[in-house]
Amino acid sequence: MTGRHSGTRRAACAAAVVLGVTGGSVLGGGAARADDGIDKLSAQQIADRSRDALLSARSLHLSARGELGDNSPPMALDLTLDRDGNCTGSVDLGKSQGSVRIVKRGDDIWVKPDANFWKNQVPGGGSAFAAILNGRYMKGSADDPRLRDLANGCDLDTFRKLVGDNADNDRGTLNKGRRTTLDGAPVVPLTRMRDGRTLTTDVAATGKPYPLRITVQGAGADAVVGFSAFDKPVPTTTPPPDQTYDISALLGRTSAPV
Predict the structure, then answer these.
(1) Which residues, other chains included, contact 40 with Cβ-Cβ below 8 Å and sequence gap of 6+?
(2) pLDDT tens digit sequence for 139-176
(3) CB-CB neighbours of 134 under 10 Å
(4) Helix, strand, coil shares, percent, the chain, to 5
């Protein structure tokens, strides 16, 4: 369907922000350990352990808001996802271009675009889809070519691969700030300048050194990526049958391009 790459693009944008601060080769092998004295380590040591902690997570909640500059559209992403490909959340294309609710469980995926999505992403045919669905989810297989990119963007392994594949992008000096708090939790901020932008990550100072918040500002960019709910199960609730419509049956009722 038109706009189907948005899930993967948003995951890539979030990964790009992560890499901007935690850039450098991924440490091999060992699992991330608790490090309550992490603020005594060097900036690079903290960044390495933070990246390892992120890559070790079996599941997490990922949120991203803002603009990354370079003429990229504003992004808004809110997903809870795991390594088994289970996921629930939403992707917003920005600038009233539409948003999509996503639920994925096993090999099944449900997507529910809003009215703006149908209007802007399926010109000439969106109104027909919207009328047939009448607020219901489209349901299909995660292997369906029309839904595959959304399904991939809803998989934690996709995000982890983006981080791992681009882990050698360290440029600029990484600086460590004073220990502070974020929403009541102790954190150590790390800051890096890159391409005229300031990228800051707040690393948990107790327990596993997960990155909790990453911000990027300057040169047209103003974005925030947040991480939470590490290793907590993805909700198992899926849309009931009376709120779903099979994607193949839907496409059989209209000739609009998808």
Answers:
(1) none
(2) 999 999 888 888 888 888 888 877 766 555 555 689 99
(3) 7
(4) 30, 35, 40
